[in-house]
Amino acid sequence: MVSPAIALAFLPFLLTLVIRYRYYFVLFYRAVLVRFIQDCLSGLSREERAFQYVLTHVTPGDPDSILEAFDHWCRKVEYISNIGPKKGRLLDRLILENAPLIVLELGTHCGYGAVRIARSLPLGARLYTVEMDERNAAVAEKVIRLAGFDDDTVELIIGPSDQVIPKLREDFGIERLDFVFMDHWKRCYLPDLQLLEGSGLLGAGSVILADNVIFPGAPHFLRYVKRSGLYEYRIHRATLEYIPGIRDGMAELTYIGAK
C-alpha cells in the first residue's frame, strides 16, 4: 500500500498532467466513455443518435439548419469528429473560390461534410462521397437527402476508398477531379493520394484539402507532399473540431504535376 507521504509527493506531478492534458481528458470522456455508455443504453450507434436529434430540430431542405443542429449536438451532447464550423469555413471558401464541377469526398461519416460541400457547389456540379461503413452510410444518405440534395448532386458510394478510387473512371465516368476532401482514416491519406495520382484523376490545378493532419495527424502524408514536388501546399493551423484546446490543422494542396 502506498504511504500518504509518497502519494502527496506525486500529487503536484499528477495535477500538472491533468492541467496540461485536460483537453485530451475531455476528448477521451466525450468521444469514448460517453459513447460507450450511450451505445449500451440506447442500442443505437452514435451517428444514429445524432440523426434522431437532427431530424427533430431542422427544416427539411435547409442545409444550414442541418449543419447548425449537428454542431449543437456535437458540442453539447456527444462528440463526433465532423469538420465543424471553424474549419468548415475554410472548406466553404475553397469550394466557392475554385467552383469545382467534380468533387470527391473520402470519409462521408454521417454526411456533415457532404452537406457542407454540396451547399456551396456551382450549378451542375457533382459530389461523389465515399464511406466504407454501411451503417454510417445509411445515416449519411438520410442526412444528405434531408438537406435537399438528390443523386444528381450528391452520389454516395459505399466501399473502402482503396477499392473505390481505381474504379472511379470506369464505373462513374470521372475523367478528372477538381477538388478532393480527405476526412477518413488518416493512415489512408498517403496511399489514397498516390492512388489518385496513379489513376490520372488529378490534373493541373486540382485541389486537395486534408483534415486532421496535426491531430490525430498524418505525418507520412505531409512528408510525401513536401518532398514529392507534385504540389504547392499550405498548412492551415486550427484547433480540433469542438475541442478548442487541442491543436490541429488542415493541408491544402494544389496539384502541379511533375516538372
TrEMBL record:
Its EC number is 2.1.1.6. Keywords: Catecholamine metabolism, Endoplasmic reticulum, Hearing, Methyltransferase, Neurotransmitter degradation, S-adenosyl-L-methionine, Transferase. It is an enzyme of class 2 (transferase). It catalyses: a catechol + S-adenosyl-L-methionine = a guaiacol + S-adenosyl-L-homocysteine + H(+). It is found in: Endoplasmic reticulum. Signal peptide: none annotated. InterPro entries: SAM-dependent_MTases_sf (IPR029063), SAM_O-MeTrfase (IPR002935). GO terms for cellular component: endoplasmic reticulum. One of its GO terms (biological process) is catecholamine catabolic process. GO terms for molecular function: catechol O-methyltransferase activity. It comes from the Eukaryota. Its main location: endoplasmic reticulum. Belongs to the class I-like SAM-binding methyltransferase superfamily. Cation-dependent O-methyltransferase family. This is catechol O-methyltransferase. The gene is Lrtomt_0.
